[in-house]
Amino acid sequence: MTLRTALLASVTMLALAGCSETDDGDKADDTGTTDGDTDAPVDEDGDGSPAGEDCDDSDPAVFPGADEVCDGVDNDCDDLVDAEDDSVTDLGTFYADADGDSYGDLESPVEACEASAGVVEDSSDCDDANSEINPAAEEVCDAVDNDCDGVINGPDATDATDWYPDVDTDGFGDSTATPTRECDAPSGTV
Predict the structure, then answer these.
(1) CA distances (Å), 122 to each of 103, 115, 131, 150, in order?
(2) Over the Cα atoms of the chain, what is R_g?
(3) I need a surface site. Which of 25, 60, 84, 118 has the fewest CB within 10 A?
(4) What digits encode the pLDDT tens for the residues 167-190?
(5) Buried b or exposed e, range 11-37, using 16+ CB within 10 angstroms
């Protein structure tokens, strides 16, 4: 055998030594993995849940036991989406708006992923049975807290009157004094 033939035979033997067959007939590469089927479950998205258990094996945020969040997706694979699922972690609080004035009743909270018909984010309505009474309404002298500021017939009433002190009780107020703006005359004013 010539030197060249001997070298060629040695290289061929080394190449063949790097590739062997496993017990089941699959060829093994130098990393020890086989090119055939394995018993390891497939987990395409790497979330720790195999495809047979994972309801969306292309999304690593979706798997059994994941937190259900308001996103239109069944995150925890229980066949319930968002607010249908009692385990949603990011529900918002909205308030019933019975009178349709865009202000809700603090005493009627509704937890949901988003506002639906009849509920709003604002809870500052002080009379949800009357759409004329809400934080945007004008306060007027009518013995009602029209603007929900906690003051009935206060100085902010659009039809309130300026009342001047009448110290000498002659029926005429002191025009140089600072007036008091109210719906009804405070004692000692005209």
Answers:
(1) 5, 11, 14, 17
(2) 40
(3) 25
(4) 999 999 999 999 999 999 999 999
(5) eeeeeeeeeeeeeeeeebeeeeeeeee
| Tokens matching residue 162 | 């300026």
pLDDT at 107 over 50: yes
DSSP letters for 138-156: PP-SSSS-TTSSS-SS-TT
CA 181, chain centre distance (Å): 44
The whole-angstrom separation of Cα 149 and Cα 145 is 7
For residue 83, the SS3 value is helix
Rounded to whole angstroms, the Cα distance separating 100 from 35 reads: 67
**Single pTM value for the model:** 0.60
> Residue 95: helix, strand or coil by DSSP?
strand
pLDDT of 29 higher than 60: no
Name the DSSP class of 8. H
pLDDT at 31: 41
